[in-house]
Each structure stands twice: as C-alpha cells, then as structure tokens.
Write a structure and sequence with these properties.
6-stranded mixed β-sheet; 464 residues; 45% helix; 16 helices
C-alpha cells in the first residue's frame, strides 16, 4: 500500500461527530493487534466484569501514569475476526462534546496507537476480506446520503446487490476464456469452438452491463441531488414559491420589487431525490450596484442549475421581460411556473397558458396561498423520468468509478466480437476478453491498484 494507507500497527480515531456543547455520546475507535492491551491500560472496570468479545464494560478512563480521571465511560470489545475490520477493535463510549473524546484519543496516541487516516478502518475491512469494494463505497454513500431513497440505494450496495451481478458477469467471462484457452492448448483433443455460441454469450454479458450502466445517472442524482433555480422578473413571487415549497420563511417576502438581493438556498427532498432549491434575485436591468450583483449571480445560478423554474406573474401576463429571461435560460431543462394564479379569472389563466407555446412543461401556482406545490413536484419528477436519468433498477445505482469500469468491460467485449468477425486466431480473442475480466474485477476489488484505493478511501471521513 502507499504511504497514505500504510495499514500496519494499531490505529485510533474519533468515530462520531464532535460538536461543541452538543451530542450525548462521543466514541473513540481503536483497531489493531494492540487494541486490547491499550484498552486494559486506559480503562478501569470495577467489580468482576468479564473482558470478553462483544461485551460492554462500565468503568473509568484514567491516565496510566498519573491515574487522573479522564471520563466515566463504556468500553465495547470486539475481538478478531468478529469486528468491523476483522482485527481486534475496542470502542470507548465517552461523554459527548469536545474535551472528553479528544483527551481519550490523545491517551490512545500516547500509548501506542497512531491516528487513523481517512477511511482506514473501512480500508482494513476491505483488505481483510470483510467487504468488497462496492460494499465499502456503499458505506461511504450511506454516510453521505441526503434522502431516504439515497440511503436505501446505499444499503443495497452494502448488502452486495451490485457485487453479485458483477461477480457473475466476471465468472461468465472466465468461463468463456477457459473454453477458448482449452482449444488453444488442446486443439487436437477437443471439438471445434462454436463461434455463434461464444458471440451469444458475449452479447448476454454486454446486455447486462448496459442494464447496469443505465443506473449511473440515477445514482448521481441520489448522491449529489438536483440543483433547481427559481428565476424570473422582480416581484413575480419567487420567494413566496420557495417559502411555500420549503414550508418555511427562508426568503423575505414584500410587495417591493428587488427585495431578494442574493441567492437564497433551501434543501428539500422530492420523490426520494435531494433537491437544492435556489431562490434568485429578480432579473432586470438596474443601476443599483448591489442589485446588479444579485442579478448577475442569478444568471450564473440559472446556467449552473440542472433545472430552471421560470416564474411569471399571471396577473401581469407574458411580458417582454419574461421573454428576455426565457431566451437566456431556454437551453436549460425548464418548467414555466405561472404564479399568482389566484389573482386572475379562470378564463384568463387558460388563455395565458395557451399563449405561451414554447416551454413544454407549464404549471400554475398561487404560492402565497400554498397552492400548486404538488403539481410542481409532479412536473419535476416527470422531467426526471422522461430524461436519461431513468433507471432500470430502483434499488441499485452505480457510481462514476463503477460506470467507467463497466464501460471499459463493454468496450473490450465489443472488441472481442470484432475479432471473431474478422476470423482472427483464438489467441487474439483472449486479449480483450482478459481486459473485460480485469475491468469487472476492478469494480469489486478483485483486481485493483493502490491508486484506485487511495482515490476511494481518501474521500471517507476519519474514523470510518
């Protein structure tokens, strides 16, 4: 392993978030051959408590030299191989806050442990065979999940729902390779290879890879969320829309145009997908320097958004200002929000909707009255489902690294098919077939380089 992940010795780290004056429990995790000895040095368990695996002891943490009391705590013991890392693991469950856990961690470091690198506990679990690489990535996704749907997808990866089909695909490729190599080594003793059967098997493998690749965009949505920008002229009800949607008073709402001077953000979940909603300053020409900065930020937010909600005032109709803004954002996925619909007659509303032909998705709202939010969320989900982000498996979603490896495997299989079509010798068939096997092995970690491990586990938090 690289110096970044020198997985030797006994490691220690704080395994819980440390927040001043918050949190009732803080955990210091220790893993390695000296974990038990370190615990016995620091932890005093009164009475006849038994130091056995998967036992929780009550007692005190003391400085081994001065015997000064550091904390009243619990000690959790998990001996190898029945632990997260398959090494001896102990956890000091201290009082929360900052000082207690930091003092306990410092004692661990002074008595033989070293500070764990980001993700090193999970890396040891992988290297010791407890997890494959897809499960390790599932843990990272679960920790960073922004919605219940994202958490469920991460759990699917942790439970091996991605690893199983990948291993099966790799096994199928190995079977084909064995058939080809047997003909190379024992050509005279075996019947000729049936090209059509080999091509059929490769096509089945490629089709399954294509199915898995279809989950990538959905996975990106679940992990990073959808960025939605509410744009429009001043005083069309953008801030009211944000407040109604988020069910809070995130944005200041007045009858004065130009109240919002900067981008206001809110985090929501729509249909299991995290949504970052940006309420922007009204876009218009202005001589006010502060408002001008806000307008420019609004334009940048619209151009960077995954989806734009172009909001207009139903009582004012489709104005020249609305048309100018539409021309600036029409290249983005767009929903036209006709707001303040409560201020116009029903006939006027229908006329207005029919007059605006360009946007494919149009909804009506009365944000000040909390009306139309359900329709807005439905329209957003329809746009997601109609695009390339629709996934075949709703409980499975691959990440960018896995997608890159699958794409490489598919390309290699296509090259095998081309080699067969060109009637090249069997030795040539095996070259790209081995490439596909290598790429599939990288996904689960059966064939993986140090640089890949560095890239994956450096994204974990320390203590995980």
């Amino acid at each position: 392993m690289s110096e970044v992940f020198a997985t030797t010795g006994t490691i220690a780290a704080i395994a819980t978030a440390v927040v001043p004056q918050q949190g009732s429990v803080g955990i210091v995790r220790v893993s390695g051959s000296q974990a038990m000895a370190l615990a016995q040095t620091l932890f005093h368990a009164p009475g006849r408590q038994v130091w056995e695996s998967h036992q929780i002891l009550y007692g005190y943490i003391r400085h081994p030299q001065t015997q000064q009391l550091v904390d009243e705590a619990l000690l959790l013991i998990m001996k190898a191989p029945r632990s997260y890392t398959r090494e001896d693991v102990v956890e000091f469950h201290c009082h929360g806050g900052i000082m207690a856990v930091q003092q306990v961690l410092q004692l661990c470091l002074e008595n033989g442990a070293r500070l764990a690198q980001p993700g090193e506990f999970t890396l040891r679990a992988f290297l010791n065979g407890r997890l494959d690489l897809t499960q390790a990535e599932g843990i990272a996704d679960l920790v960073g999940a922004k919605s219940p749907q994202a958490a469920q997808t991460a759990l699917a990866g942790l439970q091996g729902k991605l690893a199983h089909p990948i291993r099966q695909l790799r096994a199928n490729c190995l079977d084909i390779l064995a058939e080809i190599e047997a003909r190379i080594d024992f050509e005279e003793d075996l019947p000729p290879l049936d090209d059509k059967v080999i091509i059929s098997e490769i096509e089945k493998i490629a089709a399954e890879i294509t199915r898995l690749l279809a989950t990538k965009d959905k996975g990106e949505l679940l992990r990073t969320g959808l960025k939605v920008a509410i744009v429009g002229r001043p005083n069309v009800g953008k801030s009211s829309l944000l407040n109604a949607w988020s069910q809070s008073d995130r944005a200041i709402v007045t009858d004065l145009p130009g109240t919002t001077r900067d981008v206001v953000e809110s985090q929501l979940v729509v249909g299991g997908i995290p949504v970052q909603v940006l309420d922007t300053a009204g876009i218009r020409e202005t001589t006010d320097q502060v408002e001008k900065i806000g307008v420019e930020r609004s334009r940048r937010a619209a151009n960077a958004a995954d989806l734009v909600l172009l909001t207009i005032d139903a009582s004012a109709g489709w104005t020249e200002g609305d048309r100018e803004i539409y021309e600036q954002v029409q290249h983005r996925p767009l929903i036209l929000v006709i707001n303040k619909i409560d201020l116009v007659e029903e006939g006027e509303s229908k006329y207005l909707q029919s007059k605006i032909q360009n946007p494919k998705s149009k909804i009506v709202t009365a944000a000040a009255q909390n009306q139309g939010i359900d329709g807005l969320e439905k329209a957003i989900l329809e746009i997601i489902k109609s695009g390339k982000v629709q996934a075949a498996d709703m409980d499975l979603a691959i990440n960018q690294r896995q997608a890159a490896a699958l794409t490489q495997a598919k390309t290699s299989l296509e090259q095998v098919q081309a080699t067969i079509a060109q009637q090249l010798p069997l030795d040539f068939w095996t070259i790209d077939l081995r490439g596909a096997i290598q790429a599939l092995g990288e996904i689960t970690g059966e064939k993986v380089t140090e640089s890949v491990l560095d890239r994956i586990f450096s994204k974990f938090c320390i203590g995980k």
